[in-house]
Amino acid sequence: MAKRFTSGRVPPSEMEPIFDTSARWQCWLEVEAALALSQSELDLIPSEAGAAIARGCRLDRLDVARIEAETERTSHPLMPLIVELSRTVEAPHGRWVHWGATTQNITQTGDTLLLRHACLLIRKQLLSILAALAELTDRSADMIMAGRTHGQHAVPITFGYKSAAWIDEYLRHLERLDQLAPRLFVALLGGAAGTSASLGELAPQLQRLVADRLGLAAMAVPSRSIGDHQAELVTVLGLVAATSGKIAREIYQLMKTEYQEAEEPIPAGTVGSSTMPHKRNPQLCQDIIGITAEVRALAPLALESATGEHEADHASSVLFDTQRRACELTAESLSRVEVVVAGLRLDRARMRRNLDLSGGMILSEAIMLRLGRTLGRQTAHEVVYDAAHTAITTGVPFAGALAADPRVASRLDTRAIESLLVPDAHLGFAPVIAREQVDRARAAVVRCAGGPQALRTDRAGAEWEAGATVDHSAG
Q1: Known catalytic residues?
Q2: What average pLDDT does the segment 338-358 reach?
């Protein structure tokens, strides 16, 4: 993945090592070990063979250079690993390696172990962001600013209300990841076409045993053409990217010179331009906007890859590559989101000055509702519209235009008009909602500190809940 300049503000991604080739091969070996041990437990292969194969399923015991050379020569992702494992285990046990399985059984199931590690990392990042957002929202729950719809002043809000929406979205993404776990973390073991013909009469038991050893669930239909659960992960990450991109774009907007209401952390010495020394660019937010666009663009590819034909085709490899890329990019973007929200600088005074730019017209709704009690809502809307139009086109203060209208003057005196034009009086539940989301975010962080807490009744959910990594090298 191309590196982006971040002035050392963003720590190195923990995602890349997860998908390293050696890590991937080791996960494939874990599946081979689980298969051999389970087959020996069911007397499908000699018990000594199962133990010997499991002992040999460690990459540091294999000739990696030979595997790499044979992979290049044969153009097959797994066969060189199987041959080398068989050679290492030696006769008579080596001949039982990979018994009854097909390549995708091993690669897809092993890749699922990698994806579980990746999802746990993303989940950890989401919790860190929620903790940072809770702090940000708490300190800005009462920080009044202009609420904007369609780019124009709407009604007053608080910044904490704005960031409360971000908390709400990320909490749902966290929930989506937990709900996805039992569907995604499954073992595929059905042989060449998923019928388990090569695995014998004990195939259903064998599948359950292998899945249990790996901390996964067994696929109900072990068809190699099924990919909806894998595509689902990419679509969920696409939703995470949508929220992250939205936050970055919002802060990017608020950093503009004309706004200057918020600013991402910019350490001393950061250079924004080679020709304009004054520039303080939203570098991290720009990164997030670009990275998350890439993640969202992967969702259609994942969905297309889930439409494989017959019982298997090339779609499985495309799906994994799409999942891997989505996980790597998601981790890259979330690492930046955390830095931004944890160090976001807010300018309360500038927010207030910007709110006052419309000369009180941002409170037009409050005036309309008060007048509507006696004039009726639609007439009141017309009255306030006329006053706003006069203020905009003539330069007369909005309060003055209201006071000059006899339909208003007969019902509201100058003091009443001024009291209705105080932004603090028309915030609704913005501060309350902000603090409610602070509590929800902090509760989620505490609740999930030890791992996903969603209730599970299956093995895949239990392993996901524990965040466990299982050693399958021994029986």
Answers
A1: 150, 273
A2: 95
